[in-house]
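Go through this one:
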Amino acid sequence: MATPASGPILTFATALGQVVRKCQKQSTRPKCTGNRGDSRSMSKVPVLVTGGAGYIGSHAVLALKDAGWPVAVIDSLVTGFRFAVPDDVPFYEGDIADDALLARIFAEQGTRAIMHFAGSIIVPESVENPLKYYHNNTAKSRSLIAAAVAAGVPHFIFSSTAATYGNPEVSPVSEDSAKLPINPYGMSKLMTEIMLADTAMAHPINYGALRYFNVAGADPQARTGQSTAGATHLIKVAVEAALGKRDHVAVFGTDFDTPDGTGVRDYIHVSDLAAAHVLALEALIADPARSLTMNCGYGRGFSVLEVLDAVDRVTNRTIVRQMGPRRAGDPASLISDNRRIKATLPWVPRHADLDTIVAHALAWERRLTEIRSEA
């Protein structure tokens, strides 16, 4: 196996970042809006959620449904769960690259907006199997975008990631920071952002690319949550350990340049994130000539040990912590600069408290145990 040279890869990533910045500036220019001025564009239009049986997608479905939006779901159920989608929400089991299925959904549901969550998200797996990620995250997104253009769907919300920034030199990280992905997962998402920017310049469609930081927690009513077996998210892993589903929690790195030596991350409650998607969609509908790229985070961070302390505190138990070396590529700190989303949307987080995030994750984990015992 040949070892790739770092120079060309870094150069390509740098070029992609420059293209993204250029496209983002261009995407706000006035342009022909076609027939998007009809009265339907200001109403709660029918929304198709891809990956709506997954973790974040299922919360977006609830946020839309609770706010009175007509919503339908497409999910292959490869990693999603049918029980995560309410029974009264139209559900289509299938692939987002299935043009015929998408055309049928658009026609049956009158789809006027897409929230796109479907994709692969495990960073180490993306390094081991990069072509899977470029196929699932980039090529299939291209198919979905093309289907949206062909059907005249005018609004598109994309589930992006802070992994597009790679290992930033400065934290908090703003949207204008260099985009230098260090793994195929981040690169596959960045490439999709570029496709959306180019498409919005050429066709009557606008988009919102929301770059997530560390998503955690669960629906406050325990209607859905993170259900994937073998999940790698810290809070999910920690509450599993607190309930005896794991015997320890691994801590990767204790010698970072942070107050306690462990990595610091910006944890955002999944329901606050879902609410941001709904508000972003409203903004796209209100101004069809404008597209948006925004970080989604609280703008503050907690270390691994602080998170584990919170789990101990909420559960009144002590989790076994297994200290280990750093993982390659892990930054010391990754915190969002969230000034843009706050200035652009009337977004007011309701669950921006670490203990609350942990408590909701714990409640869902208990509910998930019940669901699986009933199956």
